[in-house]
Design brief:
By secondary structure, the chain is an alpha/beta fold. The chain contains 19 helices and 16 strands. It is elongated and about 100 Å long.
Length: about 550
């Protein structure tokens, strides 16, 4: 479990050693070796101790074991409070990497930094912060280092003169000059053949085809924007060929998505492959008490307004149930168990839920569940079809009916499944259509109530866990809405819900069913779907076990 790193007097004292420049060489050499010294002595920016700690970890990633026996850490996560300088830390390490060509990984032997954030505007804002640091660095170098005649020792625009006039330098790109040993010496832009770059991208497929040696995601936990598809399919491959350094920073948002799994705050995924650090708003208390008090005033106001979840998430770095999250994350996490695996044949009574997919995004899913003697609902089995590839669905259900003691089949009463439902009815199966438009809120409420009582179980399934954690609840001017967060789906949970349709009760009450009467009602509903022919009624017999 990721623990908060306390920034007290002892921690601050321990970080001081990383601020000391190596005095065996000159200023440029010392700054090339140490990103903290670079920030202090070339940009005139003193970092917080928490920033020193995090950036030192990243810096050490290039100091590989000379014998090659220890592979350096390549992925880094910083979970931080708002307003304590995480964007500044990203900007400084990006500039340091490019100015000294610290992570060459392309054919041109240059460092390529790729930055993305929750939106195009936020990504460009990060690049703008770097450009401001370049101007601040120009001024600091000009005013701090002078020769005996009072003239700037490193020129009037030290950093700006490292930029390439013939290559893009705009709102999305910073391009440095290729290395010229005579002009730049042995450390600046070291051995870069085409000039290092820093580029910003929105969280879209626009990054496809890019190659990066440093990959940075700001607000990586904002999973409605930084989706799993963007991370795994679009962004991650940009750093594969270069064995890139990968840096993810964010405040916690929801208990789902790649960042949540990467951080693994509750040790649900067997630990994180990344080096994870966590710093709350208290990380700046000792070093900047005046600013800290200003931030705490905001915290106090949010608490007074009843937004305690927002405070815990944004300032104390806890993955809490947000205002829009439908399920309690703790209840979801506790639902999954290693006590049993998916079952492929079962003789006791159980029900099946079928959620019909579409042709673009949503998938068709079958789920089989039971209620055991202890009134616990158990998910026994599921099968998911690729989009548009469910042509064998009815035959697959027929095969499952031989292996499982299915009592009822609850199906999604939607247009795309209508012809399949008709075929199921014609086969004499006990079909119960569920209308999501009219029943979704009620049945999801019953499911959640049963879940919160600890009465629902499932075998381990990361995809279902992600869907449940990403499910959101909201109110429009006309009705309440339960839907998946942008970039996610709800096929697995919808199918699971249908498979337990008769096992869960509405919140605040218990429902009793007369199974014989219910069966007769079902038969009557199903007859209405059959073609109007004389033999339809005589041919139909509900599926019996």
């Amino acid at each position: 479990m990721t623990q908060e790193i306390k920034v007290d007097e002892s921690f601050i004292k321990n970080m001081e050693k990383f601020r000391e420049p190596d005095k065996s060489g000159g200023l440029i050499e010392a700054c090339e070796k140490n990103v903290i010294v670079f920030a202090d002595h070339m940009l005139g920016f003193k970092l917080y101790s928490w920033q020193v700690y995090f950036l030192n970890k990243i810096q050490r990633s290039i100091q590989a074991d000379p014998l090659g026996k220890i592979k350096p850490q390549k992925e880094f996560c910083a979970i931080t409070s708002r307003q304590i300088g995480k964007s500044t830390a990203i900007a400084i390490v990006s500039l340091w990497s490019a100015v000294f060509n610290k992570y060459p990984g392309t054919l041109s032997n240059n460092t390529s930094v790729l930055i993305s954030s929750a939106s195009d505007i936020q990504a460009k804002k990060l690049l703008y912060e770097m450009k401001k640091l370049i101007k601040l660095g120009d001024r600091y170098m000009r005013n701090t280092y002078k020769d005996e005649n009072g003239e700037p020792l490193f020129g009037k625009e030290f950093f700006s003169e490292l930029l390439d006039d013939n290559e893009p330098n705009n709102t999305t790109t910073i391009t440095f000059r290729p290395h010229d040993a005579e002009l730049h010496g042995p450390y600046l832009l070291k051995e870069s053949k085409s000039g290092s770059t820093i580029k910003s991208y929105p969280p879209t497929s626009s990054v496809l085809g890019e190659t990066a040696s440093v990959v940075i995601i700001d607000e990586a936990g904002k999973s409605d924007k930084i989706t799993d598809q963007f991370f795994y399919d679009y962004l991650y491959p940009t750093g594969n060929s270069t064995d890139a350094i990968r840096i993810y920073t964010s405040t916690p948002w929801v208990s789902s998505g790649f960042f949540y799994r990467m951080v693994d705050p509750d040790s649900n995924y067997g630990g994180s492959p990344a080096d994870v650090v966590l710093f709350t708003v208290d990380a700046i208390k000792e070093e900047n008490p005046k600013y800290y008090e200003t931030v705490i005033q905001t915290v106090d106001q949010l608490n007074a307004d009843g937004k305690s979840d927002e405070v815990q998430r944004a300032y104390y770095c806890r993955f809490v149930k947000g205002e829009q999250s439908y399920f309690d994350p703790e209840s979801v996490i506790q639902m999954f168990t290693n006590d049993y695996q998916p079952i492929f044949a079962y003789g006791k009574p159980c029900d099946m839920g079928v959620d019909f997919g579409g042709q673009v995004i949503s998938k068709t899913v079958i789920t089989i569940s039971e209620m055991n003697e202890d009134d616990e609902v158990r998910r026994l089995f599921h099968r998911s079809y690729e989009v548009g590839k469910d042509n064998t669905l009815v035959e697959d259900i027929a095969a499952l009916l031989k292996d499982f003691n299915i009592q009822r089949i609850v199906v999604d009463d939607c247009p795309q499944g209508d012809y399949m439902i008709r075929e199921m009815i014609e086969r004499g199966w006990n079909i119960h259509p569920m209308n999501f438009r009219s029943e979704k809120i009620k049945k999801y409420g019953a499911f959640r109530s049963t879940l919160n009582r600890g009465k629902i179980q499932s075998y381990e399934d990361d995809k279902l866990r992600t869907e449940m954690l990403a499910l959101e609840f909201g109110n429009t001017s006309r009705n309440s809405v339960i839907q998946h967060a942008p970039g996610y789906t709800d096929d697995l949970i919808d199918s699971f819900l249908m498979s337990v349709y008769f096992y869960v009760q509405e919140e605040g009450g218990i429902e009793f069913y007369d199974w014989q009467e219910e069966k007769m009602d079902s038969e009557e509903r199903n007859r209405s779907r059959l073609p109007h022919r004389k033999s339809a009624q005589s041919e139909f017999t509900p599926f019996q076990m």
